[in-house]
Amino acid sequence: MSRARTAQRGRKSQNDRLQLEDILYVLRTGIPWRDLPRYFGKWQSVYSRFRRWAQQGLWYSFLKTLGELYADEEYIMVDSTIMRIHQDGSNPKGGQIRQAMGRSVGGLSSKIHMVCDALRYPLSYIITGGERSDVTQGKALLKRHLSEDSYALLDAGYDSNEIRMFMEQRKATSVIAYRKNRKQISDFDKHIYKERHKVENLFQKLKRFRRSSTRYEKNHLTFSSMVAIASILLYIKH
């Protein structure tokens, strides 16, 4: 009986690994679930497993754990990037606003607001419609990772008195570029600000995965999970 249970667990573990490989294949190539090659098995089973893990919060929880173990939060950087929505991902159930979609200059899109550490590791993110401005998500991302004596590097899109005051209350150093229309300007450390290119590099790497460079998913949860998996792989490949 014990051997039978051991064998059953071994088969289940192997099946989990195979289905994880299937999910990574979809992430990398952007292929529709229904078009998974037959040697991967039934696409319905693979998608159901992906969906179940997403609903359990597994992907984001894993990303959070990696951040707690390996992140260097001496410097944190916040920025955003636009993800165009594929025609197959438009017209979601419940409406576009509910699924974090919106109209921007480039058409229907979503925006990933992300914070990364000094080593270019992704820490956390918020997904909104593409029309939402960066400054609206600045505090929500900063409060998750901002600590005393840390530096926060942000571009002029986050230049607001509210964010600057928030960072001052947390005793953190703000390294924020100024908007052109700001009247009162004080110096900031432009040498440290040069490090902000790392968050741009992070987005470049993230968009090498087709499912996180273009939004194919109608559902916010499934798209967010794809972004989480891609972020996890950046830790593994670093």
Overview of this protein structure:
The chain is an alpha/beta fold and 238 residues long. It folds into two domains: 2-55; 58-237, Nucleotidyltransferase, domain 5, CATH 3.30.420. 46% of the residues lie in helices and 18% in strands. It has nine helices and seven strands. The protein has helices spanning 2-29, 43-55, 58-70, 135-145, 161-169, 190-193, 197-206, 210-213, 220-237, and strands spanning 75-85, 102-104, 107-117, 122-129, 151-154, 173-176, 214-215. Strands 1, 2, 3, 4, 5, 6 and 7 form a seven-stranded mixed β-sheet that branches. The longest helix is centred in the N-terminal third of the chain and has 28 residues, at 2-29. It starts with a helix and ends with a helix. The model has no long low-confidence stretch (mean pLDDT 89).
User: CATH top level of the largest domain?
Assistant: Alpha Beta
| Mean of pLDDT | 89
CATH architecture classification name of the largest domain: 2-Layer Sandwich
Q: What is the CATH homologous superfamily assignment of the largest domain?
A: Ribonuclease H-like superfamily/Ribonuclease H
* Low-confidence runs of at least 5 consecutive residues: none
What fraction of residues sit in β-strands?
A: 15-25%
Overall shape: it is globular
Rg, Cα atoms, Å = 20 Å
| Fold-level CATH name of the largest domain | Nucleotidyltransferase, domain 5
What is the makeup of the main sheet? 7 strands, mixed
